Structures are given as structure tokens and as C-alpha cells.
């Protein structure tokens, strides 16, 4: 996604409905070019086209959250993808950073991707990536599978790496989530004993939510950006985690 397409997405997210003419005027390109951009973004499940306009998707707000700190999350996804080898089977949980990672892996690597996120599965529908979507109770707001059936499915599949999203972290609580059933899915994944990697932008550090993910010893590394508080960085390292700090290079 180039910088013009990022601007288009941001305008659609901010305004809710933007005309082709307005997008062309703002970006300084022709309406023909804008329509080509919109066709691509719609095909990649970032937005929806109507006659003469672009509008956000009508589904969950994952795509909205994806656009929050998008350049940083894209760079985090590129780094995380570099840790995965061709032929690997990986588990990718829910969340905007993980969705970007899934897309990046599908575009760059020959892998098998296991997920509980129907949003991620839909995002990859135009790629050649093999996707295994685990079943369970469909949590509509997050577009994710949860519950005891999902736990059973997790026990029956095998993967070398698991990429996990978090909602919060503090030194005295460790990693936390805001949703009890999604936290239970994460903890079921951690029980598998594969390499568990937290992928998140630094805004989550310092927040706290009710449900524990972990303990921290079940994770192997954290991938985040260079806005991470130095004190949090040091505490994470002292707990035995590898902490990968990805510098943020602004998109030109």
C-alpha cells in the first residue's frame, strides 16, 4: 500500500463516506487513478465502493483499528514476517497488527496459517495462502471464534510460532486482555508450548485490563515500536523476554 492509498483509507475512516472527486482533489491525481486505488483497496478488504464514493466496511471495527498507527503497525508486521520461514505453520490470533502480519505473510511466504479470526481469513481470500480457520462460538464484534470448542480445536492442531495481540501490560499485572473468552483462547494457545510472540504497538503498554494472558514465562518475545517506555523495556527483558524494538520510519 503506497502513501496515497494510506491517505485515501484514512480519509474514508475519518469521514465515513468520501467521493471520488474529493479524493482526487486531495491527493492531486486523476479520478481514474483514484478508481484504480479504490478497486485495489476493495479487493484487499480495506473498504467498500459505492457509486462515486468510498465507504468503510460494514463489519467489525478491526479495519478502523488497523488504520490507527497504520505505518507503525505495517513496519511491525514486516519485521514479524521476517521471523517466519517458508513451509512453517503459524498461528495468528486476532487484532489489527496481527491482521497486517497475516496479509504480509500471505504475500511474501509459502506458509500454512491457523487463526481464530474470520476477519483474517476473509482478508486472505484472494491470496494463495493456506488458511485453517478454527471453529467455535462466533463472537460477532471481534469476528473471532471463542469458547470450549475453540479450545478443543487448538489442542488438535500444531504450529511452530504463535503471534498474539494484547490489550494491556503493566509490571504488576503482566499481559492482559479486555475480553474473557478471547483471553481463554490465548491461554489455550500458550499451553501448546510453541514459540509465543506478542505483536503490538507501544500504546498498549501502561494499560491494564481484567484478564491475564500468560504468565509472562510462556511468551518468548515481544515485537513493538521505538516509543516503548525504557522502564517497560527493561522490565520485559528482566522477565526473560526477547524484546525487538522496530524503529518507526515515517512514510514519505
Describe the structure.
About 40% of the residues lie in helices and about 20% in strands. The chain has helices at about 5-15, 20-25, 30-45, 60-65, 70-80, 95-110, 120-125, 150-155, 180-190, 230-240; strands spanning about 20, 50, 55, 90, 110-115, 130-135, 135-140, 145, 160-165, 170, 175, 195-200, 210-215, 220-225, 240-245. Strands 6-5-4-9-12-14-15 form a 7-stranded parallel beta sheet, with helices on both faces. Helix 2 (about 20-25) crosses helix 3, helix 5 packs across helix 6 and helix 8 runs parallel beside helix 9 (about 180-190). By secondary structure, it is an alpha/beta fold. It is globular, with a radius of gyration of 18 Å. About 40% of the residues are buried. Helix 6 (about 95-110) links the parallel strand 4 and strand 5.
Amino acid at each position: 500500500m503506497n502513501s496515497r492509498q494510506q491517505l485515501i483509507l484514512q480519509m474514508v475512516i475519518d469521514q465515513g463516506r468520501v467521493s471520488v472527486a474529493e479524493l482526487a482533489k486531495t491527493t492531486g491525481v486523476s479520478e481514474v487513478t483514484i478508481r484504480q486505488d479504490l478497486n485495489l483497496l476493495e479487493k484487499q478488504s480495506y473498504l467498500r465502493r459505492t457509486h462515486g464514493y468510498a465507504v468503510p466496511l460494514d463489519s467489525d471495527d478491526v479495519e478502523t483499528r488497523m488504520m490507527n498507527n497504520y505505518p507503525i503497525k505495517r513496519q511491525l508486521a514486516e519485521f514479524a514476517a521476517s521471523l517466519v520461514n517458508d513451509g512453517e505453520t503459524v498461528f495468528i490470533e486476532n487484532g489489527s497488527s496481527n491482521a497486517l502480519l497475516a496479509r504480509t505473510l500471505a504475500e511474501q511466504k509459502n506458509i500454512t496459517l491457523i487463526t481464530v479470526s474470520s476477519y483474517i481469513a476473509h482478508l486472505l481470500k484472494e491470496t494463495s495462502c493456506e488458511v485453517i480457520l478454527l471453529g467455535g462460538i462466533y463472537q460477532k464484534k471481534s469476528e473471532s471464534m471463542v469458547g470450549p470448542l475453540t479450545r478443543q480445536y487448538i489442542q488438535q492442531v500444531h504450529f511452530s510460532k504463535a503471534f498474539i495481540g494484547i490489550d494491556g501490560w503493566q509490571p504488576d499485572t503482566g499481559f492482559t486482555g479486555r475480553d474473557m473468552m478471547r483471553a481463554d483462547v490465548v491461554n489455550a494457545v500458550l499451553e501448546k508450548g510453541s514459540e509465543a510472540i506478542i505483536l503490538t504497538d507501544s500504546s498498549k503498554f501502561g494499560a491494564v485490563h481484567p484478564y491475564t494472558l500468560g504468565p509472562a514465562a510462556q511468551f518468548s518475545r515481544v515485537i513493538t515500536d521505538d516509543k516503548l517506555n525504557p522502564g517497560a523495556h527493561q522490565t520485559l527483558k528482566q522477565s526473560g523476554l526477547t524484546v525487538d524494538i522496530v524503529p518507526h520510519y515515517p512514510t514519505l
